[in-house]
Amino acid sequence: VQLVESGGDSAQAGGSLRLSCAASGYTFSGTCMAWFRQAPGKEREAVAHLHSNGGTIYADSVKGRFTISQGNSKNTLSLQMNSLKPEDTAMYYCAASTWRLGVSACARVRYNFWGQGTQVTVSS
Question: pLDDT tens across 38-94, in order?
């Protein structure tokens, strides 16, 4: 399995960015994919989870601003980020799990595969 993120960039506060994750060798069926982020000096945190049945879970800090979805390609994961804030600055990682669980388990499932990350920088 290989996950490759793209779309990271610099943006002004209030702006938008769209991240994409291309997954190869992975079957998104009955499983979870997610976006995580890690800011300098901070622990990695979950941003949003997507179950293959369409169910989603968001961190409180991004609810109403970010949208996780399956991309146009079946093996693409997207994260639309609107109303960006400086505190959204971080390295963003795509993750995929092979555990076949329900959507409620996405927030606690172990993610087996990770991308290399894409940097998002938001300035005020």
Answer: 999 999 999 999 999 999 999 999 999 999 999 877 789 999 999 999 999 999 999
Q: Which of 27, 1, 7 is nearest to 117 (CA)?
A: 7
Number of residues written out for the chain = 124
For residue 88, the 8-state DSSP code is G
Nearest to 103 by CA among 67, 53, 66: 53
In single-letter form, the type of residue at position 121 comes to: T
- Are residues 33 and 93 in contact, defined by beta-carbon separation less than 8 angstroms? no
> Which amino acid is it at 47?
V
Q: Kindly state the percentage of the chain with pLDDT values over 90.
A: 93
Question: For strand 56-58 and strand 66-70, is the pairing parallel, antiparallel, or unpaired?
Answer: unpaired
**Position 79, amino acid:** L
Q: Does the CA dihedral 29-51-9-80 come out positive or negative?
A: positive
Phi (first) and psi of residue 72, to 5 degrees:
-60, -40
Considering only CA atoms, which of 16, 36, 19, 31 is closest in space to residue 98? 31
